[in-house]
Amino acid sequence: MHKKQSRDIFLFILGGVVLFFLSGMVDELRVYQGATIAIYVIAISSIILLTGYSGQVSLGHGALMAVGAYAAAVTRIEFKLPIILCFVVAVLLAAIGGALLGAAAARLSGPYLAGTTLALAIGLPSLANQFTVLGGEQGLLFDVGFPPLSLGEEFTQYKWFFWIAGLAALISMWIIKNILGSRYGRTWRAIRGNEVAAQLSGINIARSKILAFTISAGIAGLAGALLSMTIGTVSPSAFPLALSFSLLAGAVLSGLTTLGGAMIGAVVLVAIPEIADVVAHRVGSSERVTTNLPGFLVSALLILTVLFVPNGPVEQHRARKAKHLALKK
What are the backbone angles phi and psi of residue 19, rounded to the nearest 5°? Predict the structure, then answer.
């Protein structure tokens, strides 16, 4: 186990070094897309933890991201705290919201739980419009500023965002990986497999579900704060219902039980709007088609994934590799 942990630490450090040098080799658009991919990796990982491991379906993770985004923005504007502390506040408040939602979720399952989280995703934007401190429909500007030391004229704002988002993604994935490998992860898998058997073995089902929702919500809150940092604003329109559906689709594409596949889902979510734009320009489609095409492509890809690789491409590859090795023996 010690050797495995040392190897994982080395891989995470290596990933950070690669991201550092990569940010100086690509143009501004790719750096922005890289930051968005890192944010989606964090958000999708939170769904994998919640749905893939504890078996609880959430259709409202976009709303939990919004909680984290508003918490970070209000903290930054009202109290002028350092950006790291703003992110910490975002995680804590989103986790508290997740704990409250988890308390209700502990009594629900299946479509009832999905419906509850869906109602949250629909109702939260309207609720945000009722408070002037949240900026109403226009939202709030979220300025994280530049690093305290000058890093040269070529170091742009988006590179700074990329560094923050990339580092946050690496740290988040490390923490989630260790949580899922701990007794908590094993407990969640047991509950997902058979709640009755898990309860008979002495597992507190309600407490375990609330804990899963709390941790997942906190991670989603961090992703929301990072997203608002990247786009520079926090508003209800930045966290629509479509975001929750897209993240869930990204988690399915990644493989709901495969944390390492989160990168695949994140890349797909970032690439699809660009692909849709290219296709729309090639065929000369109207603006309405251009607007709706990304959603259609995500839906089509989701259906194909469920039909042909229901466990995700990474898990499918592992299964084929294991089968191949078994046949060799």
Answer: -60, -40
Could you give the C-alpha distances from 104 to 98, 107, 117, 323, in angstroms and in order? Answer: 10, 6, 10, 42
DSSP 148: S
Prediction pTM value: 0.89
> Measuring CA to CA, how many Å separate 36 from each of 4, 56, 221, 266?
30, 26, 15, 8
Chain centre to alpha carbon of residue 289: 27
**Alpha carbon distances (Å) from 115 to 98, 198, 238, 252, 278:** 15, 25, 22, 19, 35
User: How much of the chain is in helix, strand and coil states, percent to nearest 5?
Assistant: 80, 0, 20
Query: What is the tens place of the pLDDT at every residue in 168-222?
Result: 998 999 999 999 989 999 999 998 888 888 888 888 988 999 999 999 999 999 9
Residues whose CB is less than 8 angstroms from the CB of residue 201 and which lie 6 or more positions away in sequence, other chains included: 190
Residue 233 pairs in a beta bridge with 141
**What residue has token string 């975001």?**
243
- What residue ranges do the domains of the chain occupy? 2-240
End-to-end CA distance of the chain: 26
Distance CA 203, CA 184 (A): 11
Question: Angle at which helices 28-47 and 157-180 pack, to 10 degrees?
Answer: 20
Angle, to 10 degrees, between the axis of helix 61-79 and the axis of helix 28-47?
A: 120
- The continuous run of DSSP H or E covering 61 comes out as helix 61-79
DSSP run (H or E) holding 234:
strand 233-234
Residues contacting residue 158 through CB under 8 Å, at least 6 positions apart: 28, 31, 32, 35, 230
